[in-house]
Amino acid sequence: MKSSVVFRLLIVVGVLSWLPCILAAPAVDRPNILLILADDLGWSDMGCYGGEIKTPNLDALASDGVRFSQAYNSSRCCPTRASLLTGLYPHQAGIGRFVGRSNDMPGYRGRLNENTVTLAEALKKAGYGTYMVGKWHVNAPGPTKRGFDEFYGFVHGHGLDSWEPRMMIRLPEGRPERSYGAGEYFATDAMTDYALDFLNTARAEKVPWFLYVAYQAPHFPVQAPPELSKSYVSTYEKGWDVLRAERIERLKALGLVPASLEDPGRSPIENIMLARKAGSATKDGKNPAWDSLEAKRRADLSRRMAVYAAMVENMDANIGRLVADLRKSGELENTLILFLSDNGACAEWEPFGFDLTPANYANPKAGHGVDGNTTREPNRLHEGEALETLGGPGSLFSYGSGWANLCNTPLWLYKHHAHEGGIRTPMIAHWPARIRDKGAIVTQVAHVMDIMPTALQIAQADYPKEAPALEGMSLLPALEGAPANPRSLFFEHERNAALREGDWKLVGKGALVRDGIRPKVKWELYNLADDPNEQRNLAAAEPERVKEMTDRLLAEAWRTHALPSP
Description:
The chain is an alpha/beta fold. It folds into two domains: 36-482, 3-Layer(aba) Sandwich (Alkaline Phosphatase, subunit A); 486-566, Arylsulfatase, C-terminal domain (2-Layer Sandwich), CATH 3.30.1120.10. The chain is 33% helix and 15% strand. The protein is built from 18 helices and 18 strands. It has helices spanning 2-24, 56-64, 77-86, 90-93, 119-125, 187-205, 226-230, 233-236, 240-254, 272-278, 295-329, 358-361, 385-388, 401-407, 420-423, 451-459, 476-479, 543-559, and strands spanning 32-38, 66-72, 129-135, 150-154, 169-171, 209-214, 335-341, 354-356, 376-378, 424-430, 440-442, 446-447, 488-493, 496-501, 504-508, 512-513, 516-517, 524-527. Strands 1, 2, 3, 4, 5, 6, 7, 10, 11 and 12 form a ten-stranded mixed beta sheet that branches. The chain has a four-stranded antiparallel beta sheet with strand order 13-14-15-18, with helices on one face. Strands 8-9 form a two-stranded antiparallel sheet. Helix 6 (187-205) packs parallel to helix 11 and helix 9 (240-254) packs parallel to helix 14 (401-407). The protein is globular.
């Protein structure tokens, strides 16, 4: 009997001795979060979305993770960033249009509202190391004042000269900076260098981390190493008409668009007035047929797009560096990697693109990129040696609406618009520890504002009760294979507005004015399930649905501060 009592006591003592360790050990380590945002990338540019650009690293993430077929942004760089960082509609965050253009409307302060909470602030409070490289573009205060421990990039301006290091800044002030020799610097590479440094900092401090990599690529000025660009010239000599048809066939084969989808043809020129002034307008107002252009113009345009493709490939290679580092450190398994674009392809402003005046572009003030006052020279024709060095140091240009039409294949219109070409983004999620259906296409409708609640859920982080209620929803169920749920989303930028409810979408160009809906606006109505490129307008056949959705769109515009309070 005594031996039995002693045995029981020993068991109890043993359990009690281990109890503190059991209680202290977490059931599952909190994941790291790597958020990668491309700038002006078209919906179908990547190989895994049907493009001809070489993106092996992103393709591999898609193959081992999932691709979203119906993910959305907020139509332009700064509104998307505001929404992504706060989990709100951009107007609720204070940046409904552009940074620095404040007015008396609460949705258009031109900076993040003081009552917002950023993802970095919430994760930092939960014990995460928070790091950022690249493009901030949500105005003052800067990233280290809004939750990031470390930053390297540019805090003002919408773009930069990728060959020019003086436009970048390191925060907090006094932190060690890397040194680059003559000809060694390229912005995408340097951002990745610092991102790797920040990951080493997190490992040394032994904390879970959130790394936000906001590449400037492939925003204009379109730049890339000339040797890499040359490898694409023959591809783009085919022209945008042939390549668009090829992309559509690949998209169908990948299951990203319906098999019945037809090529919508060439989209309208973004700015027809400017195109007329530059001599690049067409009679029907749409981008010209490739074969209608003279040989010199085709040569110039082929090289512009080749540089763009090389810029994307260079970004992909840098993403490969990040993934390789995570694999080497043993962190890849439990790191959620999200990749997406801030808006649709950039069609600014006419078919042949524009060139920038270098003297007005490179602002020597550290941390400042280009602003809206840059001199743009339309329609420059590059020949001879100028063609060979296009995209290298001192070369600053855009690629034009003709190529933007290709990059958004098969979607309609571009950046700035509420049509699918302006707001739909490719989105890849990779997380081996939780994603089981590898290579799947997720049909759940998603939005950049969903990243905040998703990250908070997986990081077990709290959101302040006094902050504005989150508008986004967690995408964790979708990542784990849950069936898609219908949802409603509102969009507005530069008076272009849309409402998506389930598969139905109401959209109008210039639809809103300060006191509500513009009189006589021509609403368009589409069923996106079988018409994702918005070619069959059902508004005339569905007047009641148009009326009901118009009322709800207006209510959402008031509620989210896209319009001032009624």
